[in-house]
Amino acid sequence: MLVLSHSDLVGLLPPLALVAAVEQAARDLYSGRAIVPKRGHLDWAGNTLLTMPAVSASGFGVKMVAVVPGNASRGLPLTSGLMILNDGETGAPVAILDAGSLTAQRTGAVGGLGVKFMTPMNISSMGIIGCGVQGAWQVIVACALRPIREVFCVYRSRESFAKFSETVGRYAPEVALVPCADARDLLTRTDLVITATTAATPVLPDEPALLKGKHFISVGSFKPSMQELPDSVYSLAGQLAVDSEHARHEVGDVINPCKQGLLRDEDVFSIGECVVGSRSVDTTLTTAYKSVGMAIYDLCVAQALHRAALARGSGRELSL
């Protein structure tokens, strides 16, 4: 069994290869070739343990992740855990991967589906609200998909922004990272906004004049009590892409606009439709995409990372 640490996984695959892996996951999911039960939630003291199993034609695995908001004040990642990857034929575990690095890269790639299919090809700037590890990977992948030259940033601390800048700089050193005073300032400067926070209430002002014609990707919220995007985004967009059917019932960014009548059930569609070519999105209009993550995305990215590690000789062999 191969053990792949954070340092083993960082830089193992280029951003576009990560996007290719999640596109394959989206195709498998859309065509019914994947088995993905609803992920388990165990909440305690403001923290969450998530368990996410999945089966594909070539293997299966389970990711276990703890989400601890209090880690922000400790200077630690909000999420940590392990991914166990198993052989599809024998069931034997073949690899253990650091879930923090896997999740950040996978989340960046799944967010990248929104960039690839729901933004103009020539968009040259973006905004990011939430400059943690996941925020950094959203920027890294977006910059690999679009000719982005400026990234406008809203962050909570200088320390987090310094780490964010270092991570982004490794992959996109030519991109300018521009601090913004607040979300309103950010919205006046760019048409692509990605939110990567654990906020319970919207992190953007609910003002149609500021939001109209822009492109919104939410990747941070993951509970019914969380909503990162304001109501006007959904009214303006008139439809919402999601990365999984589970998102319809798991997160406030989907539940609330449907409950309030801002969107109908049929206005919520799978990004897999865009991946397989059965739907296209008019990128001259306001667009919205919500990613909550799904075990099949973790599995396909973990398998791609495992193959790359074997080819490169990365990681450490461990006998059970």
Structural commentary:
By secondary structure, this protein is α/β, with parallel strands linked by helices. The chain has 13 helices and 15 strands. It has helices at 6-9, 15-31, 71-74, 99-118, 133-145, 158-171, 183-187, 208-211, 231-237, 247-250, 252-259, 271-276, 295-312, and strands at residues 2-4, 40-44, 47-56, 59-67, 79-87, 93-98, 125-129, 150-154, 176-179, 192-195, 215-218, 240-242, 268-270, 287-290, 316-317. The strands form two sheets. The chain has an eight-stranded parallel beta sheet, with helices on both faces. Strands 2-3-4-5-6-1-15 form a seven-stranded mixed beta sheet.
Looking at this protein, list some descriptive labels.
alpha/beta, ornithine cyclodeaminase, domain 1, Rossmann fold, seven-stranded mixed sheet, 13 helices, 15 strands
β-strand percent reads 15-25%
CA-atom Rg in angstroms: 18 Å
Name the shape in a single word: globular
User: Structural class, from helix and strand content?
Assistant: alpha/beta
| Major sheet size, sense and barrel closure | 8 strands, parallel
CATH fold assignment of the largest domain: Rossmann fold
Helix content: 25-40%
The CATH homologous superfamily of the largest domain is called NAD(P)-binding Rossmann-like Domain
Low-confidence stretches: none
Q: Please, how many helices?
A: 13
Q: Note the gap between the termini.
A: 8 Å
What is the second-level CATH architecture of the largest domain? 3-Layer(aba) Sandwich
| Quantity of strands, as a count | 15
Q: How many discrete structural domains?
A: 2
Q: What number is the mean pLDDT?
A: 94
Strand order of the largest sheet: 9-8-7-10-11-14-12-13
CATH class placement of the largest domain: Alpha Beta
N-to-C series of helices and strands: EHHEEEHEEHEHEHEHEHEHEHHEHEHE
